Amino acid sequence: MKILLIEDDKKTAAFILKALSEAGYTTAHAGDGKNGLYMAKNEPFDLAIIDVMLPLVDGFTVLEGIRHAGISAPVIILSARNSIDDKVRGLHAGGDVYLVKPFSVTELLANIQAQLRRTSMSSEPATLTVADLKMDLVSRKVTRAGIRIDLQPREFALLEYLMRNAGRVVTKTMIMEHVWEYNFDPQTNIVEARIYKLRNKVDKSFGRELIQTIRGVGYVMEK
Fold it and tell me: Rounded to two decimals, what is the model's pTM?
């Protein structure tokens, strides 16, 4: 699942992006309101985190622009302002949660999970299934044949991408762009290494291999 962060403070942004990455989320970041609104309108995302005090365009205006564009993804508002008027304005503008700074990582992640759970219940299924492999996108639990599989956040993100594209071949470049969000040296073996570890957990003990290698092309998860 992809989260858009619109935050101009570099330290705060780095703190939030690190927490989201460690939790297994894909992220995109804008450092001002103008670019943030452009990204929101042109790049798909599952949830947005928007600071109120932004350069060029303030957070409330960004939020109003997102809603006027017909985008219904949940939005968490970040603000150092704790007044009732500001909270009411944020919620009236279309925000789902008003989080006052400073906040804890646990509080932020709990709010993210709650909003994604609500969205999943009202729109797309909260569970991905391929053969006997099941992934709960809300609780972030993975099982195969009823047996729990413990995954690291990046492994979870990689498996989610493969399961969402079951039956389709995905290239190494596609995986790097969607799971790691930036390009590595084409000669790097980071994708191969992660696929190897993922196979050991998902396929090795279950007889049938779901993750297949298409030599010279990429990988495909069987339906």
Answer: 0.61
Domain 2-122 has CATH 3.40.50.2300: yes
Report whether 74 contacts 96 (CB < 8 A): yes
Q: What is the total residue count of the chain?
A: 223
CATH 1.10.10.10 corresponds to the domain 127-221: yes
Pairing of strands 133-136, 141-144: antiparallel
170-214 pLDDT, tens digit each: 888 888 877 876 555 556 788 899 999 999 999 998 888 999 999
Q: What is the DSSP string of 111-163?
A: HHHHHHHHHHHHSS-SEEEETTEEEETTTTEEEETTEEE---HHHHHHHHHHH
How do the domains of the chain map onto residue ranges? 2-122, 127-221
